[in-house]
Amino acid sequence: MTIQKEADYIIVGAGSAGCVLAARLSEDQDKTVIILEAGGKDKSLFIHMPAGYSQLVPEKNDHNYGFETEPDPNVGNRKLFWPRGRGWGGSSSINAMVYIRGHSWDFDHWNQLGNQGWSYASVLPYFKKAESFAGDGDEGFHGHDGPLQVKKSDRQNDILLDKFVEAGVQAGFPATNDFNGRQQEGFARYEHTIKDAKRSSAAQAYLHPALKRKNLEAITDVSVDKVLFDGNKAIGVEVVIGGQRQKIMARREVILSAGAINSPQILMRSGVGDPDDIAPHGINMVHTLKGVGKNLQDHYGVVSQYESTQPVTLHRSAVWWRQQLAGIQYLLFGKGDASYPPTAGGAFIKSHPSKEIPDSQIHYVSAAMSDSHGRGDLPKTHGFSSIIYCCRPLSRGYLTLASADVDAPPRIFPNYLSEEQDVIDLRNAFRETRRVFLQKAFDDYRGKQLKPGPDVNVDDDASLDAWIKATGETLYHPVGTCKMGTDDMAVTDTNGCVHGLSQLRVIDASLMPTLIGGNTNAPTIMMAEKISDHIRGRAAMAAEFIQ
Question: Is the dihedral angle over the CA atoms 385, 360, 188, 19 positive or is it negative?
């Protein structure tokens, strides 16, 4: 096996975090950077067309790992489909483009857990540094010259989108001007990572501009098998390219940014983790860290759905010939239904008045969504839907190796709803969401209830709980499998450095000690921005306290 390449920094994974790191680290012209990606370049039209999300998520494909969990006894012993991005941009190239940072409480909580420097005041400057915001957001909370393009949804011809916000207020919830500003709680249109009707992925925002630099090299279609060590020091990675094994060496650091699923896998294949996970596969132990692959958290959501009595929903573009027409309109003019992501509005609510902060998120869609990630038949009727999940589940799962094979997917045990409080909170959040749909604002549009169907008594706890467990799905936000912290299950410190090893970091969503209240792409980008300063020896940006 030969040493093919060498650089100061090797970044494994060109996803939301990896693209940021490649761009920021290569700003130092005296340092060389290689970024390795298992997938290919982000060339597909469906990546860049906002509505193309629905073509990339439903099935395993070149841009989607399409993982599958182990049967989960808590949700009907079902194997659940877990889409994850593959290729430049990672999941930021296939997600719904919703830009949510999380509640300020989330980051203050990280700080209170012992992760100094991760308070909301400390991370706000990095959210702003990453962002170029277009809209009427709250003053002081947004950046305007960062790489990531963010704008408030201006979706047209969707009367029910604004009816949703109106109904939320009628139900007694507040409206909010800016989910990422002073007040997360309430109903509003979303902010999206979009510019000029095109997706602003991490690859488009960070990687593509940086590739003009001579000190940055991006290699696609490469499977990273393991990290190479000299004692406890990471010195490179062993990879498979075109069926051939090679070594790529790092003079300064190896950085795993392969995501909450793949980063712990690579660590375990490298002999870093819990011996009980590693030894059965004949892998030599390098360093024991019990927390690798543990602490897995994800948002688990259910759908509330009604038929629309008027033809004013996105069903207008659901039949095949109208899909084609929407695509042509987008290609020619950059307008129409294909120029918007499906989820244009949402809400953060308290599932019960006793909650101190909003603990549930609602995604609203002016369509009767098909089942299971849009994999089912196209809807046959006009309708409107919401997806509801609890932001901070108490349930914890884990993942482990299926084998030592570099191409083998992991065994994923999400352990959804294993804590009773998660069931109670999701039940309450569903009922609150249904109450929104029963408000006066929807009276002229609301037909029969489609989900749950007539066989579910939504007023009976046992009946509703059974339906929640039988129908819920991932909301694509796995985190925590290499969490930062100081306890026995922590894998890294606050700068992503792996405990007990040198020149090795993990920087991606797996670092999050707990799930945040919202979508996970924006905070993942923020984390990479923040830690890149530490890698480069730069002082952290000054904390910002906004009243």
Answer: negative
